[in-house]
Amino acid sequence: MDRFMDFVHSNDYLKDRQGDYTEAYSHYSPWVHRVDFGYKHDFKLDLGKTKHTLQLSLDVKNVLNLFNSSWGVSKVANQDFSTSPSNGVQYSKILKLEGVDAAGYGVYSTPKGINGNTEVWKPYHTLGQCWYASIGVKYFFN
Q: Which pTM does this prediction carry?
């Protein structure tokens, strides 16, 4: 039980709600700040009686990640104490019900990996989380 209480006291959300219920989905997933940038410029060309338009574009996705590799990256539940049932949804197992005592109260255990230093969320570094840029050229027929 000491490992569990160390975990609760080190978590900003849980330590303020000791002895109370937490709100549904209140500690579901950390917020991710992501900024995308796009710029388009049209060049008008008059060649004789025909007007042509050439458009150049630049798109940069997840600009914050360009400056710091930990910015703009979503986080997932710590895999060290998580389980994935057949539906593929990730559930964190901080407490495990071991049974019921003689008075009818639940008896719980905490996995050995849980303590005050346990991270609840870990960065989810995948290709879609990295910044990337694309350059485009478009020609408009008139």
A: 0.60
